């Protein structure tokens, strides 16, 4: 009975911790950072991170532009004059909008600096996002509404002081759920390697010969571990922290155990079947 109570308590505690982590991540995703001018006549820029490509060292930013006050017409659906939205040096291209034409969303690519994907799942990156607007050749105030929609990354935004421009410094890291899952994968890999090592020790020290079910289990674990590693979110490359901390060593231990058990089992079987001299 005490064991059942302990198990029930652990389940409730795990669900509570998981619920709290999910809630905090959801709150982070729903957070909108406001940067820039609050003037009545301004250009609002809604910038949402759609995806982060750590291998390509860039992120995709979806931008929705809305001129406010006397700068727009049809409730901000179109600018009253040619609108030019200049971006930071990390952004691939600027945005141009013709006067009196309906504004549409645009996807822009922003380069990332710092960090390396080989540090997965502990890799971090940095970049700056800035918007400067000119309407009819004259600079106008900008307000940026920044948020993140990529669940694999958490983004912290630090606004930079500016009068008419909207500038924010970003720091990107793997999300909490991804980090927990990656650490869980490393623990499972070492646990499987330890299980195979214990099984190999038993088979090599016992008097039994070739134990085919044991061989099948070890071989299946060897290949299943590789498939399990490829399920890591974010498709990390071979040679990252995940591999050097767990996967490569676990695969090596399992392979050596399998070879040792085969050689020992065959040797015992040959000696057992050999005619007495």
Give an account of the 3D structure.
The chain has 277 residues and is α+β, with helices and mostly antiparallel strands. The protein is built from 4 helices and 13 strands. It has helices at residues 2-30, 176-205, 212-229, 241-273; strands at 33-36, 43-53, 58-67, 72-73, 78-79, 83-87, 95-97, 106-111, 124-135, 138-140, 142-148, 153-160, 166-174. The chain is elongated. The model has no long low-confidence stretch (mean pLDDT 86).
Let me know the largest β-sheet.
6 strands, antiparallel
Number of strands: 13
Global structural class: alpha+beta
Summarize the amount of helix as a percent range. 25-40%
Count up the helices. Answer: 4
Mean pLDDT: 86
Name the beta content range: 25-35%
Radius of gyration: 29 Å
- Strand-and-helix sequence, N→C? HEEEEEEEEEEEEEHHH
State the low-pLDDT regions, or none: none
Measured distance between first and last alpha carbons: 60 Å
Coarse shape:
elongated
């Amino acid at each position: 009975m005490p064991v059942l109570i302990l198990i029930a308590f652990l389940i409730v505690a795990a669900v509570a911790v998981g619920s709290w982590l999910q809630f905090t991540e959801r709150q982070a995703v729903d957070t909108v950072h406001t940067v820039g001018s609050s003037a009545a006549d301004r250009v609002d820029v809604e910038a949402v991170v759609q995806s982060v490509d750590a291998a390509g060292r860039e992120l995709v930013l979806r931008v929705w532009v809305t001129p406010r006050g006397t700068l727009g017409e049809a409730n901000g659906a179109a600018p009253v004059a040619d609108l030019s939205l200049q971006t930071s040096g990390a952004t691939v291209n600027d945005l141009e909008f013709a006067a009196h034409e309906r504004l549409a969303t645009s996807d822009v690519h922003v380069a990332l600096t710092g960090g390396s994907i080989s540090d997965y799942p502990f890799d971090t990156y940095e970049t700056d996002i800035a918007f400067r607007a000119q309407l009819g050749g004259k600079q106008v105030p900008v307000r940026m509404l920044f948020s993140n929609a990529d669940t694999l990354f958490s983004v912290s935004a630090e606004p930079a002081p500016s009068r008419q421009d909207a500038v924010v410094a970003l720091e990107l890291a793997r999300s909490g759920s991804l980090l927990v899952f990656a650490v869980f994968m490393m623990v499972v890999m070492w646990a499987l390697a330890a299980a195979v090592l214990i099984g190999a020790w038993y088979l090599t020290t016992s008097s039994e010969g070739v134990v085919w079910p044991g061989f099948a289990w070890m071989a299946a674990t060897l290949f299943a571990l590789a498939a399990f590693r490829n399920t890591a979110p974010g498709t990390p490359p071979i040679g990252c922290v995940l591999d050097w901390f767990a996967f490569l060593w676990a695969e090596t231990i399992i392979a050596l155990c399998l070879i040792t058990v085969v050689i020992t089992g065959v040797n015992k079987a040959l000696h057992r079947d050999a005619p007495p001299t």
